[in-house]
Amino acid sequence: METNKIIALSEDDTMSIAAKLAKEYPNHLVLLKGELGAGKTVFARGFAKGLGIESNVSSPSYTLMNEYRKGHKSMFHLDLYRLNCLEEVVDIGLFDILDSKQPCLIEWAERVYELSKLPHLSVEIKRQSVSDNDEQRIITWHWEDSKE
Ligand SMILES: Nc1ncnc2c1ncn2[C@@H]1O[C@H](COP(=O)(O)OP(=O)(O)OP(=O)(O)O)[C@@H](O)[C@H]1O
Ligand SMILES: [Mg+2]
After folding, report:
1. CA 45 to CA 22: how far, in whole Å?
2. What domains can be seen in the chain, in order of their start residue?
């Protein structure tokens, strides 16, 4: 398994790497890992930019899912932090969306074990302090094939 790694010194750096990955994985499932405030939503914002989506991507915490349209295509962005049960993602049509091979980014996907078994781009963002009031992010990513 090939793991890629980059250091993002700023929010803009994180958005740039996300935009680059959007060009490489434009119709894929992306699972975003990292603690609260790591930069998963910032990454999703950069990914949307890379897909040419102009609307401002914000946290879908209270709605579970946001859809951003670009022509006849959509990017889906989910945050499962407040998910109560699997039925909630079934009800919003997540598995149909995944079957339709459209870009879909998910924060806190760990809440739904089934997702980790699907082929996906795994992205992890870690905060690292560089001085008393400065932080950077270590972003690692790799492709994971489906698991039985
Ligand atoms: N290098 C960086 N990359 C991304 N965000 C950064 C960076 N440096 C600082 N930040 C700040 O960290 C915060 C990241 O917030 P964001 O909402 O993206 O986190 P999150 O991982 O989605 O958290 P949550 O789990 O609560 O949804 C923002 O306020 C952003 O400005
Ligand atoms: Mg978020």
Report:
1. 11
2. 4-144 (3.40.50.300)
